[in-house]
Amino acid sequence: MKRALVTGGSGAIGAAICKRLAADGCYVYVHAHEHIQQAEALSAEIQALGGAASAIAFDVTNRVETEAALHDMLQAGAVQILVNNAGIVDDAVMPGMKPEQWARVIDVSLNGFFNVTQPLLLPMIGTRWGRIINMSSVSAIAGNRGQTNYAAAKAGLQGATRALALEVASRGITVNAIAPGIIADTPTASLFSKADIARMVPMKRAGTPAEVADLVGFLASDQAGYISAQIIGISGAML
After folding, report:
1. 66: which of 44, 59, 115, 129 fits an S-S bond (Cβ 3.0–4.6 Å)?
2. What's the whole-model pTM score?
3. Hey, is 9 helix, strand or coil?
4. Which residue, among 182, 186, 84, 81, has the nearest Cα to 135 in the 3D structure?
5. Active-site entry in 27, 29, 150, 226
6. b or e along 83-106 (b: 16 or more beta carbons within 10 Å of the residue's beta carbon)?
């Protein structure tokens, strides 16, 4: 049984990803930071459906705390599927953006990516099989007013995706990023009315967390073994 870690697993997209990976036969670690009760409830739901899961809590921006949590996790073996889904938004137009708004968004998406991914790489390399999937955003590609910090963080994650993919390609590990557009039940989606979505999205609707999870499920599978260093949009033809 492959073992998967989904950071930010307690949110709408993260929860859908956890359910999909568990349904595909993985043991899933449902990560949370401040919402461990939601992660525990999701883990229990997965178990009730016959899957294997447990909840884990740590702050991805805290290197020492993250290393300790991952060290304990690795005692049971390598994590072969990693979904870097943790991220936050703290929107403001750039002239009015506070330094802490910039720093915190960058910290979670980029430093969090490093803090979680780096300790898992050597054990993953040792198995000669791995899937690393990073959650980016269409904001990183097209930009978005009020999201200079978020766009910068997610664009940086895309660059890291491509570079890391080159480093581990010969070891049976793929690294890809997914760039969702407007996805229902997320904080970003709540900013737009149905009329806004119909105007902005050629498919005239928001995507669903399950649709994002289906893409993650494919990229995490054996069938996606020759797909790496890609940024894959799931945005209803917005881009």
Report:
1. 115
2. 0.97
3. coil
4. 84
5. 150
6. bbbbbbbbbeeeeebeeebbebbb
Distance, CA of 204 to CA of 194 (rounded, Å) = 9
Dihedrals phi, psi of 27, to nearest 5 degrees: -85, 125
pLDDT at residue 191, as a whole number = 77
Give me the numbers of helices (H) and strands (E) for the chain, helices first please: 9, 7
Nearest Cα to Cα of residue 20 among 60, 56, 57, 49: 49
**Digit-coded pLDDT (tens) for 98-155:** 999 999 999 999 999 999 999 999 999 999 999 999 999 999 999 999 999 999 999 9
Cα pseudo-dihedral 223, 229, 233, 234, rounded to 10: 30
Instruction: Read off the pLDDT of each residue in 23-29 and give the average, rounded to a whole number.
Output: 98
Measured distance CA(157)–CA(18) in Å, rounded: 21
C-alpha distances in angstroms, 234 versus 65, 70, 152, 238?
A: 33, 30, 19, 9
What interhelical angle do 209-219 and 12-23 show, nearest 10? Answer: 50
CA angle 219, 45, 49 (to 5 degrees): 75
Active-site residue 150, yes or no?
A: yes
Q: What CATH architecture is 3-233? A: 3-Layer(aba) Sandwich (3.40)
Q: Is the sign of the CA dihedral 112, 218, 40, 118 positive or negative? A: negative
Alpha-carbon gap, residue 37 to 223, rounded angstroms: 34
Please compute, for residue 56, the number of CA atoms within 13 A of its CA located in the half-sphere on the CB side: 26
